[in-house]
Structures are given as structure tokens and as C-alpha cells.
Amino acid sequence: MQRSATRFLAFTGIAAMALTGCTAASAPQGSQSPAPATGSGSGTASGSYTEREVTDGTTTFKVVDNPGDGPDLSYSADGGVTLLEEEIDGETYAFKDMNGNGELDTWEDWRLDASERAADLAGQMTVEQIAGLMLFSSHERTPADGLTDAQKTYLSESGLRNVLNAAGSDAAVTVPWVNEMQAYVETLATAETPYVPVNFSSDPRSTAGSGGYNAEGADISRWPSSLGLAATFDAEHTKNFGEMASAEYRALGITTALSPQIDLATEPRWLRVGGTFGEDVAQNTELAAAYVDGFQGTGGEDVWGSESVNAMIKHWAGDGPGEGGREGHTDAGKYGVYPGGNFDEHADGFLGSLDSAAVMTAYSIALDANGEPLFGERVGTAYDNGRMSVLREDNAYEGVVVTDWGVMSGSKDEGAFFGMAWGAEELAPAERYLEVLGTGHDMFGGVNDATFLLEAAELWQQKFEAGELEVDAETRFQESGARILTMLFNPGLYESAFLDPEQSAEILASEDKVEAGYAAQLDSVVMVKNDGDTIAAAEAADWKDKTVYIPRSFSNGFASAFGPGEYTEGPSIDLEVAEQYFGTVITDEAVTDSEDKVTSYTAPDLTDVDLVLVGMDSPDNGGNFSNIGHDLETDEWYPLSLQYRPYTADGENVRKTSISGDLLEDGTKQNRSYYGNTSRIANEADLDAFERAVAAVEASGKDIPVVTVLKAINPVVPTEFEADSDAIVVGFGTSDQALLEVALGLYEPKGRLPIQFPADMDTVEKQLEDVAKDMTPYTDANGNAYDYGFGLNYSGPIAG
To answer: Which residue ranges form the domains of the chain, and what is each CATH number?
Structure first.
């Protein structure tokens, strides 16, 4: 791999020097000298390495600072790791003796290439030990609990070493948890059980204006969503994000990013459009490469180091073309359809970033226009030899391949909370692992227990001995083991897995990162309408004596596998943020029922109001686990919609017979058509809020500008609100503050649409799920088409 070679070159000056011999360190060298902060290659000025102790209040560990460009080391003060010394050109360097044999083994030598070290260690590991490396844990959400018994169990009994951190970015609780777990796994190493540090991973956690652990806060720098980064049409923002976010990830102990999501967003109704780089394959390819380069480099250079994080591009070879926009996490959306025969373009979006350390595969079963499997097998990607051969054989990808979470379970398996083994539900669990190993996968997402994987190893060996497979189980597992261990060696986990709490605090949400993230947010905001220069250059002081009206709204949410829908209610734009800019901020009065749900709103008197700002989210069709598009109680299939009011799918372009569907026992195919049925939108009240605001302006008799602030995760049909809006700004995962600064003329908009906004639902129905930019875009009264690449600044349309 290119990066492994680059990292090796970073130490060629040391590696080329003659070695005078390796000795065990009997005492810390130069321990009275002040040691600089840890970080690969920070280095002492000359002479010998220095050593110091660090504690986070729970775990105490030692930090070694090597001379020159030698990497810093860390290890538990209570573990079994000792130091070895090497004299190189008159300077003493430290290496970690991680197996206690008093010798510097190949895998312990930080001067060597990561892949060489990984191959050496994997060759010493048993099938059982490597099986633990092949597990990727379920979501860990509560680091404040410290190292739990359940975590100790999967670390010690299953040998799991890849842990998904799904908690927030609070260093005060995360750093002690990370260090405690790293110290614990050091104690598990013996002469027979090689030491393997914990590889913490994370889904995206830096998006402004989102929920969950992406919620706004001062704990980490905040950036636009990937779709927002695409809206800047400036790859430098994506590269900056990768470089800065990766440093913050490392400050939280995270060494693998479960991102970027680079599925082509060719189906506008798909729930996960907001996490993509849009629908254009060339832009997707450019931004994916910038993201991977930024995350896997260190200090702005194309070299593995202390700020490097493994990138995992997902979801091969594209999960975007779900029929009707349905989502592959659930049975309703388990089929991806290619009526335009455009699979190659979806795969092409991944090919420019195959230097990523890892690839995650898609959930969906891929069908052609006739409902037949694209590659002959009616199975999800993990089980699909055809799609996997395009990656492994046609494109010679040698990195780690990971299943998405839940893919190894069937929904009917005993004790399964959910299961996405689409097309392989009838196989026994061990048989599923055997199949997925056979397609070239290395790791299994959301699996904490190696039992079925080890059963699959036995099945593999039986097939090998029967002449059905070319390599034995040990060879196959060591192949994956070497790939996985390379992910741990590349970012330097074997050198330093511990976190200094003071350094983490300095790195997280540092001023330079916060400023860069906010600059990207501002550049990502798109202005699509600006009648009569409603939005014009202004100063913050111009608004300090003004009054703004911001209406309220609510969403009913959707029930999901995790429980009933969550009702939310509040101002459509954060009032506290608005108060930073306006002298007076007013909103609606609400009447609520016994369950504290709003039954009616009353708009205020707008006599003294200078501006109306209406925040609107994209029409909410539901979440990943809501089985959207299919009512399980009534067995009704219904359409997803990009408009707020109910949409009945009875137009001439609506399929009366679906492309996808299960094969039934009588030999027929299930029809998943939603023809004649009506959409279900949780936040229709957003349009009510807009109409209430417009009516209040009319009632005032004043000419008060109405600015619509659209917070988009999908394209939207603008027909319902465009005509009555004096201006419209669109944000993709941006904060309310960035949206307000553009809406108030404090920052001239630069963003452009990274996806088409359709004219109506008829063109949405007519477009093909796998084909980009094939809708008729909405055209407003000014003749502006809301097409891919469109955006306005103060002078008019921005040149593409």
C-alpha cells in the first residue's frame, strides 16, 4: 500500500544506520530530563530517550520520547511491557518488548513497514486468536461507566480488539475509559497470546446541526455534513476536515473512522443522502480521495503518524439505489435496484480512494431492471461473490473488508435484536460466516462473540480437506489477520495506545479547528432565491435594534426497532442563537394537551417585526430502523415523499408492479408497489409554520420579508413554499448560526446545490434509482432552475 511505504520512508534515516546491538533497558534513560509532549516523531534534541509517568486519575502509564524522528512510545505502568534499547549513530532509542522475550522481534520494530510487521505477527497467531481480531464490537455508548464486565468478557474470552465508540466527544470520560481498556489488554498478553492493542472506531461525529453524538457542542470542532462539504465545491475544505477531525479522533483514542460514506445519492428519497457527497460521480471521487488523504495523513503530509486515522470507505458498491428510496437497514429496503443499468458508475465512485485502509460493504441485494440479481445471486453484498470479485479481483483491493453491522444475523435468529443477512437468512449462522469469508471479507460488524466464526473455521478446514477450497483455514485466517493488524500498525497503535488527558484537551475543539469548521459551514450554505435583494451585504450592528419572528413547529417522529416515535417541538431556529443578532426575538404561543403535545399555535402581532425567519427541515419520512415504506401492521406499501403535504402516488410514472420483491413459495414474486397509497411525513407541521408566518405577515399589512431557512438532508420539492418566500437559504448539516449569518447578509453565500431539487413528485417517480441528475429540476418565478451546481450570490447565479 502506498501509505505503508510512505510511513516506512519516514524512518529510513534511522533504519539505514548500523545497529550496535539490542539490550534490555534496566532503568529509564535520561529520566531527569524534561520530556516533550507525546506524538510520533516529536523527538528529543539528541542523546537518549526520556521517560515520564502520566495518569488520568484511573490509569497510570509511561511515556517514552525517542530522539530525533523516532516515535513516542507508551505502555501501562502496571503491565508486562519492558523496554529494549538500540544504539544508533551514538543515540539511544527505545523499543517495546511486548512479548517479554528480551529480543527485538520484527513486529516490535517500529522502523519496519507496517505490512511486514503485521505479516510477522499474524504468522505467529492461531486461528482462535485471529478470530478475535475479525470481530467489530457492537455500539459502546457509555464510557462514563468505565471498563465494564461485558467489555472484559469480549476482550478476554473472544479476543475482540476493535471497539465501536458510539458515545459523545467528552474527553473527561472518554480518555480514562480508553486508557483503562488499553491497560487491561496489556495484561492479557502472554508468551502464547500476543499483545494486541484496542482499535477504537467511530461513525462521523463532527457534523454541526445534527442529532445524537453529532449534537452541537464545544467538545469537538463542527463541520457541515458530507453533503454540505460537497456544497462548497471546494475539495480543500474536505481535506482540511480530514486532517483536523483525525487529530481530534486520535485525542479520543479513535484510530479507525467508519467513513466516508461515498454511496452515490442517485435516489433522492433515500434516507442517507445527507451522509453522502451527492450524486455526481466525479465530485464524489474527488472528495472521497481528499477525505481519505486527510484522515490517513499526519500534519498535512501524506504520511502515517500520530494524527493518522484509518479511513473506511462505505458502502461498497453503493447502497443508494433502494427502490423508491427505501433503506437497506430493514426488510422494506433490502433491495437496491438498477433500472438504468448503471452499476458501474456506482462502483466507480469508490475506485479513486482504494488507498483507504478499509472498505465496508453494503446491505442491499442488487437487482436489474427486470428484478433479477445483477451477479446471479439474490443476496446482500457480503454474500455476493460477483460484487466482491469486482473489488478484490478486478481492482486488486488488498485492504480490510468489513461487513456492515447486523449482516451476520437473520431477523429470525434466536436472540437477534435485528438481522440484515439479506438472502442468507435460511443459512445456519456458521454457514453465513463461511460464505462471507469466501467472498473476501476480513471483519464482521457488530459481533462480540467468536463462536460462530470459529465454527466456520472448522467448516472451512473440512472443505479444504475435501478439496473444495484451495487454502486451509489457518492460511485464510492469517491472510485476514495480516490485513487487520496493518490497520493497527499504520497509525502507530503498537507504539503508543494511551492518551495524555492534557494533550487531548488541547487538541479537541482547538481554536484553529473550530474556525476552519465554521468557515466550511459558511461556504456550504446555498442561497437559491433572493427576490429584491432581500439578502444583501450588512453588518452585524444593522440587526441589533431589529425584531425577528421565528415560528415554532413539531414532529411526531416514527416508531423504530428501538421504540416508539419521539415527539419533538420547539422554535424552527434556535432562539438563543437568534438573540445574538437581534434586539428582540418573538415566537408563537402554543396550546398543549394533557400529554404536553401542541394542539394549536397562535402567531404574535407582527406590528414591530422587521424580518420573519422560518426554519424547515427536509420532509421526514422516518429513520434507518423505521421500516419506512411498509406498514407491517396493515401490510401496506406507501411512498416516500419530498414534499410536506400528503402525496398520493397515483401518477402515470408510479410503478404498479415493483422491480423488487421476495420470491414466494408458490413461485411468484411479491409486489412492493405503493401505487395509489399516500405518504407519511412526521414534520408536516413545518409547512404549517411557514404558512402561519406568511398569514401573519399578510394580517400585519406590512411588507415584512420572509426568509426560509431550509435544513436539508434530502432534496425537497420547493413548490409548497417557494412562491411566498422572499429568499431561501439551504444548509446541509450546518449550524443555525452559519445559516443566520448568510440569511442576514453577514457572509456572502458561496455554496451550490450538490443534488437536484425536483420540480414535483412526478419527476421523482419518473427518475431511475441508479441514475444521477435525471430529474426535471424545480424552476422558480425568476427562471432559476434548482439544478445540480446551482446557487446564488449577491450578483446572481454563481458560475460553475
So the answer is: 2-112 (no CATH), 514-624+681-797 (3.40.50.1700)
